[in-house]
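Batch manifest line 518
LIGAND: zinc ion
JOB: complex structure
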Amino acid sequence: MRLTTFLILLALLTYSCTKKKPVLEVDIAIKNGQVYDGISESPHSFTVGIEADKIVFFGAEEIIDIKAKTVIDASGKAVVPGFIDPHTHTTQDLNDSVARHNLPFLTQGVTTVINGNDGRSPIPVGRAMKLWGLSGAGTNVGVLVGHGHVRRAAMGMENRPPTSEEMQEMREIVTKAMEDGALGMSTGLYYTPGNYASTEEVIELSKIVSEYGGVYDTHQRDESSYSIGLMNSIKEVIRIGAEADIPVHISHIKALGVDVWGKGTEMVALIDSAKSAGIDITANQYPYVASGTSVGGSTFPNWARAGGQEEMIKRIDDEVVGLTIRQEMRDNLRRRGGPSSLLITRSGNPDWIGLTLEDLSQEWRLEPIEAALKIIKAGDASVASFNMTEEDIAILMAQPWCMTGSDGSAGHPRKYGTFPRKFRKYVIEDSVISFGRAVVASSGQVAETFNIKNRGQIKEGYFADIVVMDPTTIRDNSTFEKPEQFASGIDYVLVNGEVAIEEGRYTGTLAGKILKRE
Ligand SMILES: [Zn+2]
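JOB STATUS: finished
ARTIFACT:
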């Protein structure tokens, strides 16, 4: 019998005999808040009772009294499940004694991060998971095995199909990762060496992931008009879902660049038709018009990277090949919106930060492409690439299959601001979606999509990953100029029943667990 059912029966019995409410004693009770359970979009005026790392009570205190060692008064606040961020770049952070606290995420109300996205994960995944489990983390962590790094481990940066031995090695690495508890496999088919892989190669490896009940997550091959085009790229995702019989998830879905602006509706129609044909397809999105990449990543042709940095520089300096590279770069820059649309946010040379590629090309009296090549040769620089429209963002955000994902990476405000920004700008200011929908898209739905058991909802028996937030003052404070500003409006964050944020301040706890696929 469920605990509540039992308690209610007990309460009714006691009440009818004695007219006195029975008492349930817990460690922490969150009272007087509007509680969103992470699945339904409307709130309940319920109390949440927490004992050790679990939620043991969720209901009204009409026939039972909840007594707690610690009471959190959530009057005027929203109580929501801790957010689950399906796309982060935290593998390096977790190896660092300070960054492993995951404060940029905790302060947004994120209690679980998934990493290993974009085809990039530690190999072997199991070893990293074990290390992170030992050293501790501020949030829970789920890991995807990254196809690009699997491929690199098996065959280097070669631009060709794998031999049968190499394919076998990739199969073995993916199998081992799934055995070790990876939630699924990610690809970065836009990036080297992922872009050297055929659809068939990806399908073959995805079949293994499917056997283990894992998910396919992708930075798809083309978000713009670089190679096969945005719409064909979505068709490739759908084909992988169909042929590998696997749930597919498009990370940071967007229409990138002038050639595809306004395609939001068409993207939705294609995805909806795949859904009606039985494909389990979903997406996540960050709420910014700029993506985070590098000067090279946004302009330099990927084919010219084969073989590594030295080979690449040889090609740039080659009279014939260099000309082709420059022609392609010119077109890539046009697609992105020109040199003024690339803002340098991080670089080995601090003088470049805050300047656009246009600024630098004027300063150096170089054509924008030559300025870009100078930066790439010097080891490249991170940029915010302003390449999306608010209209497409809103159309995609409003879809029931579109969740929240930060793609949090250094140098972009999304690492510190994604979740609060979605509430502040798209719920409160622009009314693109409701508050309840934003909660579901950031918690329960993500847990379901990535098969994370007993999290993402406020429900008895679930882990106590819980956020108390102010639904009116929540806001992002990170900007492109100052990306590392913590968000505000998050009062309490509980991770596995431990208070990590208390009245807006970090307590220093490392309560996160490494989540293994069950
Ligand atoms: Zn990506």
